[in-house]
Design goal:
CATH topology of the largest domain: Rossmann fold
Number of strands: 11
Radius of gyration: 22 Å
CATH class of the largest domain: Alpha Beta
């Protein structure tokens, strides 16, 4: 099988975010970048599928600036075979990213299945999987917790209210992984060393049919959350404290 995984590089959740000079996005200097955690489930599922199908290969794709090759190397260190990087602007939106990924896949000889995470943790848009599958021309199943593999795919997906549904789809198909689909493996030291030598194919936006006009959304006027106000400490006897607390909740917080 020719198995593909689309991933995104995102800021680490513990990174302190600052805005750039014109408030159109974040200042990328000094940020620790990681593979989006939902994409780790996608990579793991692809590797497990390869292990069950002798002769299969796993190719990891990512679209973005030059730095995203680091995330591709992370997936290669987990055990993926090949990497493809499509260079698009830092400011690319979901539509441009999806079209770039689909364009890169169209250049491949054969695609049997594509995995990705259900969403990226930086913007939480949850749009790229569906858009890219539409551009590529295959069905897409999102928020997938498990897959039964055969002539077709039977996907268990999470829906609202804690319920689940089963969706069957023919191959090739695009599967967007939900947390809990599996337990992603850690990269071993030998695989980390091997990943440094594995080829990552480089493509430009023009190579995959992407133009500036494919970016449909542009951001402006970002604002950081306001700083938290200092807490108040109420002194006195318990009865007086309780009375003052009720007054503050009613008059200042206006919650009672």
């Amino acid at each position: 099988m020719n198995i593909y995984v689309c991933i995104k590089q995102v800021p680490d959740t513990e990174t302190k975010i600052k805005l750039n000079s014109d408030n159109t996005g974040i200042d990328t200097a000094g940020i620790k970048w990681i593979m989006s955690p939902y994409d780790e489930f996608a990579v793991e599922e692809a590797l497990r599928l390869r292990e069950k199908n002798a002769g299969s290969t796993v190719t990891v794709l990512s679209a973005g600036p030059a730095r995203v090759v680091e995330a591709i190397r992370t997936a290669l260190a987990m055990g993926a075979d090949h990497g493809i990087h499509v260079e698009i602007p830092e400011t690319a939106d979901s539509n441009m990213s999806a079209k770039a990924l689909a364009g890169a896949l169209k250049k491949e000889a054969k695609v049997d299945i594509v995995f990705t995470g259900k969403e990226a943790i930086d913007d939480g848009a949850a749009q790229v999987s569906q858009l890219a599958a539409e551009y590529f021309g295959i069905p897409c199943v999102t928020v997938v917790l498990g897959v039964e593999y055969g002539a077709s795919l039977k996907c268990k997906r999470e829906i609202e209210g804690g319920a689940f549904e089963m969706v069957e789809t023919p191959l090739p198909a695009w599967i967007a992984a939900q947390k809990g689909m599996n337990e992603p493996r850690y990269a071993s030291l030998p695989n980390i060393m091997k990943a440094k030598k594995k080829e990552v194919k480089a493509l430009k936006a023009a190579d995959v049919g992407v133009a500036d006009s494919d970016q449909k959304i542009r951001f402006k006027n970002f604002e950081l959350p306001p700083p938290k106000q200092a807490g108040k400490k109420i002194a006195g006897e318990p009865a007086a404290q309780a009375k003052e607390l009720v007054r503050l909740l009613h008059e200042e917080a206006k919650v009672v």
